[in-house]
Amino acid sequence: YFLEPLRKEDLVALLRKGALVPRDLLRTREKSYREMGLDDPNLDDDTILDAIVAEPGLLQRPIVERSGRVVIGRPLENVRKLF
């Protein structure tokens, strides 16, 4: 995701497959999360997605896809649900 950053369209596809919302993809402990004002609960989804595209370090990871389903790999139990 750093060498080949995800596009906004890629993020939207992941969200759909995982029944997630953009805020679910954010690493809230990153310094840039606060610096970019992403802790504002009133931000719209497009703003959050644009921030992740601009700053890939904000992307929660790992993100695991299997059989057309997507989960965020933390906690590990999320990944186990795919198998």
Structure description:
With 83 residues, the protein is α+β, with helices and mostly antiparallel strands. The protein has one domain: Glutaredoxin (3-Layer(aba) Sandwich), CATH 3.40.30. Helices cover 37% and strands 10% of the residues. It has helices spanning 8-18, 31-35, 45-54, 76-80; strands spanning 63-66, 69-72. The protein has a two-stranded antiparallel sheet with strand order 1-2. The chain starts with 7 loop residues before the first helix and ends with a helix.
Which structural class is indicated by helix and strand composition? Answer: alpha+beta
Mean pLDDT: 94
Spell out the helices and strands N to C. HHHEEH
Percent range for β-strand residues = 5-15%
Spans where pLDDT lies below 50 across 5 or more residues = none
Number of strands: 2
The domain count comes to 1
Largest sheet properties: 2 strands, antiparallel
- Give Rg in angstroms: 13 Å
- Can you tell me the CATH class? Alpha Beta
Helix content: 25-40%
